[in-house]
Write a structure and sequence with these properties.
The structure holds 2 protein chains of 2 kinds. In chain A, β1, α2 (49-60) and β2 form a beta-alpha-beta unit. Chain A starts with 11 loop residues before the first helix and ends with a helix. In chain A, strands 7-6-5-8-9 form a 5-stranded parallel β-sheet, with helices on one face. A 4-stranded parallel β-sheet of chain A has the order 2-1-3-4, sandwiched between helices. Helices cover 36% and strands 15% of the residues of chain A. Chain A is built from 11 helices and 9 strands. The longest helix of chain B is centred in the middle third of the chain and has 10 residues, at 71-80. Chain B is α+β, with helices and mostly antiparallel strands. The mean pLDDT of chain B is 88. Chain B has helices at residues 28-34, 71-80, 150-158; strands at residues 17-24, 45-53, 57-65, 85-90, 93-98, 105-107, 128-133, 138-141, 147-149. Classes of the chains: A alpha/beta, B alpha+beta.
Amino acid sequence: MKSIISSYDLTREDVEEIFKLASKFVKEQKGDSLRGKTVALAFFEPSTRTYLSFNKAVINLGGNVIGFSGAEGTSVTKGENLADTIRMLDNYSDAIVIRHKFDGAAKLASEVTDKPVINAGDGKHEHPTQTLIDLFTVFNHFGTTDGLIYGLLGDLKYARTVNSFLRMLTRFKPKSVYLISPPQLRPRNEFLEELNYPYKITSNVYDVIEDIDVLYVTRIQKERFLDELEYERIKESYIVDLNLVSKMKKDSIILHPLPRVNEIDRRVDKTAHAKYFEQASYGVPVRMALLKKILGE
Amino acid sequence: MEEPTKKELLVSKIKNGTVVDHIPAGRALAVLKVLKITGSEGLRVAIVLNVESKRIGKKDIVKIEDKEVSENEANLITLIAPTATINIIRDYEVVEKKQLKVPEVVKGILRCPNPHCITNNDIEATSVFRTVKVKPLKMRCEYCETEIDENDVIRQILGNPQIKPV
């Protein structure tokens, strides 16, 4: 199989196949489809969850892992460029998983190697394997990803998980999608223009919370605001607390790609809506499924 | 080619080469930039600026002796001079009128305005822009997907933020 740089690199059939495999791996995290294979983890930007879950996914499938997390201690600090680092990894591995701080780095990597490249987050661009985990959580809860009302809350402009999520939904039939953010953090037009499902942009989560089946929360980062006071004023209206949760549909769920800082009140963790830790637990089985699909014969 | 209003030509006819006519006034230098003509190549080049045109009001003309622009170069000219016409001259006669179309892909000439785009941060990366829409022009970076419009393109090639759109 080819590289996975964007959510667009996966069809609905691909995603459904991955979900089917992942369901199996949730029950038993074992397999041998990567026996004799080596996966390189090239994490130029540090990561906890994504790095560890890819690492564990490869080991669970009987494969070997090489690589690094954080550019420190690698030749990158000596000024080696991305392409040269990827060429080296190409010699040692059967697939390359890349995390990088610059937008488009995964695509550039895929152009200097014939091995499949998996984008594990490139700057503010995309993070498609996170979306697979997000939608797998939805699928597990509702038995489908179609016909639901999604609400994306927070930073919809600079969050790569949001870009990949919006794009992956074009493979399905969401009933509608609410895009809830401060005006300056609305999704980029080039991403909105491509959507093939109904969506509505709003700034007030309380206007739409009662409709939502899946509330997907992302963090609003201070550095996105020129004015700190503006940030302080705005951030309060995007915090998910017990008051907001009390207005949610009975069967609705809350997702978050994590790490969470304070955008979800910790008291919400105990409610039945909170699915973000369960979501995180699917990191390994979903990535096992993806690796098996890409590398396993 | 349109005749200037006065009987006399500002620049005489060329024997062999290319005439780029109907360039929006003020963009002739950008056309040379796109064609990578700096003057040091030794080519004889005539540049006519701000002459009257029945079709577009005021226009620029560029005549390049002993160089026939390629299809690809011709298409690049449309990025900054959508009204331009390109005639190939052999022995004082127009032997070919190039049909211009906006190129599907532009490699290396444009710079992605996103400072965090990998094309601005890796020595081996070359910018690649794909045309999303022709009118009004909209091009998208193949790497980070940032979009640029006609003004961005002109500003980059001309290095002049004051340029008026056509």
